[in-house]
Write a structure and sequence with these properties.
- By secondary structure, chain A is α/β, with parallel strands linked by helices.
- Chain A has two domains: about 5-185, Rossmann fold; about 195-320, Rossmann fold, CATH 3.40.50.920.
- Chain A has twelve helices and 14 strands.
- Chain A has helices at about 10-25, 35-40, 60-70, 90-95, 100-105, 135, 150-160, 215-225, 245-255, 270-280, 300-305, 310-320; strands at about 5-10, 30, 50-55, 75-80, 115-120, 145, 165-170, 180-185, 195-200, 205-210, 230-235, 235-240, 255-265, 290-295.
- Chain A has a seven-stranded mixed sheet with strand order 3-2-4-5-7-6-12, sandwiched between helices.
- In chain A, helix 8 (about 215-225) links the parallel strand 10 (about 205-210) and strand 11 (about 230-235).
- The radius of gyration of chain A is 20 Å and the shape is globular.
- The mean pLDDT of chain A is about 95.
- Chain B is of the alpha/beta class.
- Chain B has a single domain (about 5-50, about 65-105, about 125-330), classed as Thiamin diphosphate (ThDP)-binding fold, Pyr/PP domains (Rossmann fold, 3-Layer(aba) Sandwich), CATH 3.40.50.970.
- Chain B is about 40% helix and about 10% strand.
- Chain B is built from twelve helices and nine strands.
- In chain B, helix 6 (about 145-160) runs parallel beside helix 7 (about 175-190).
- Residues about 1-15 and about 25-30 of chain B have low confidence and may be disordered.
- Chains A and B meet through helix 3, helix 4 and helix 5 of A and strand 3, helix 6 and helix 7 of B.
Amino acid sequence: MADITQSITYLDALGRAQREEMARDSSVIIIGEDISLYAAGGAYGDVDRKRIRSAPISENGFAGMAVGAAITGLRPIVDLTIASFVYLASDPIINQAAKLRYMTGGQVRVPVTFRASMWHNQANAAQHSDRPYPMFMNVPGLKIVTPATPSDAKGLLKAAIRDDDPVLVFEDNDLWAVREDVPTDTEFLVPIGKAALRRAGSDVTVVSVAGCLQPSLQAAEALAGDGIAAEVIDLRTLLPLDTDAILNSLGKTGRLVVADYAHRTCGVAAEIAAIVAEEGFDLLKGPIKRVTTPDIPIPFSPPLEKPLYPSSASIAAAARQLL
Amino acid sequence: MRSVAVFRIADHKHRLSGSERNTLGKAILQNDIEAEAYNRMLRIRGFEQAVGRLIKEGEVAGACHSSIGQEAAIVGACLALRNDDYMSGTHRSHGHPIGKGADLKPLMAEILGKATGVCKGRGGSMHLTDTSVGSIGESAIVGGGIPLATGAALSAQVRGTDQVALSFFGDGAVNEGAFHESLNMAAIWKLPVIYFCENNRYAAVTPAASTHGQPDVARRADGYGMPGVIVDGQDFDAVYAATVAAVARARRGEGPTLIEAKTYRFDEHCIGLFINGTYRSKDELDHYRAERDPIALFKASLLSRSHSESALGEIEAEVRRLVTEAVTFAKDSPFPEPHEAYEFVYSNPAGFRF
């Protein structure tokens, strides 16, 4: 079964993951804004409409309700649409979902999935362009996945829905139209906590976060033209972080670039740099390079916005500085 | 049973239905329910007094918020629920699980931070969650339990059970957005939930009169399209009857009710809190303690019915024994080992390095 694939987009893959899991398990429900329109279009399959909740604009309220539903027998998917809105739901995510199992001494489990799509480089200005995952990495009790391919979008979202802990799924909106051969098997899952080796190389490791995979692979291709063999690691999961995959690759290359569209301070790249400094210092042949977005709000005007983000050119330039 | 003082103040569209009137009229408490109510109210009082003694003995870490004065509101609401009905609560968390019937021993052990505590020492006084009696969370985030109970009600509706959820919260919580968002969603989806405001008149040390444009919380119900009920929170019979009606409405699939129990906190916001200044008068406090003690009122009422002084004395003795047992159990229990701090973070912790 696993070898049967179909060419679908990243967005289709997310939809299929939800549809398959709703068909498989009657405890899976979905809550979010505007979803009745998509439900009418059959996006969630032929399921009891009680399981599809088109909510008022009350992110705090329905995220908290999803936590209450999760600890009483359901597996809610909360569609928060644009990632900047996660902040409105951050109290129930941080104070309830992440902590209730711990604070009750293991009396409850909290199988809830929060989806949020990250919009950037699309002239939406600062209140629609955030990538909040670094903040949530600082919250014990959460899991965070960041699919960068259609197959991972399907496999990680399905794994998140089946997981007994709260999982945040941060999706890259500009990958929605990317197409790939995706396994059709309804049991196809991508394990949470495992990075993927996307390209092997021996000179420099490029660790890619979320949607930075494409420019990272393009950078590796450009570097190959210069005779530099870059290894590309796609993290896929941010909590728990696959530290072994990073250190193993560094053991081969001795050089590390971390590429992330998120802001720089206390970001994923900063955390990886700290881990490598503590646990892989002897492996390093040079400084760790972070290729990130500057610490300024995202501007509206395209000529202001576009140059801020990591690109294949800036990732390749960082790698060249190490060689 | 004497007549029950229940005032419905929502608009005419939400007048009592015939069956609701019937429920109220027939909410005649059986002897055993009355005895159980007295027992549970005394258990809360005795538990809180024991906690106060343990604090003086230096046995308690962290803040404790006492439910003394609010026993009738809590027990009247809880006894209207089944064991499998859900309940969420607040930082003032001791009374809710006791009201719902929880064993006192693991609750007291939790307050002392012991390994045998109901939350194994991870929660403490503000978070006495006991899922064995339907509690789904005592939240120290003001208003945090309201969406949880609303979600539990959604869960019951989706799963097709006839369970209901009751959310306890204070007068301070109704000014949180979570209150507004939850009540609106419960109303549009006719969720089986009872919003139960223990209005003890003060959010910590701030009077509700200075933070509520409309002093009657229950009047807000009309804005959400649900019935609102104001009830004397010092009167067990009134609280019980009002909650029975709200639970019946929820089980029938007719949706949520907002109940406001006007009650009073006899202790400070938290036990031993130093207040530099005055936020309530000594006369007011004396009045409530002397004239409006819910247990004294209920006992007088029980004696005027078919209960004898000796029968009530037996209940009082049993509760004293239960509280003593709980204190002994808690004191004798071991503390958790430091390395156990890393347990219960995740159901599936694979991949995490703590």
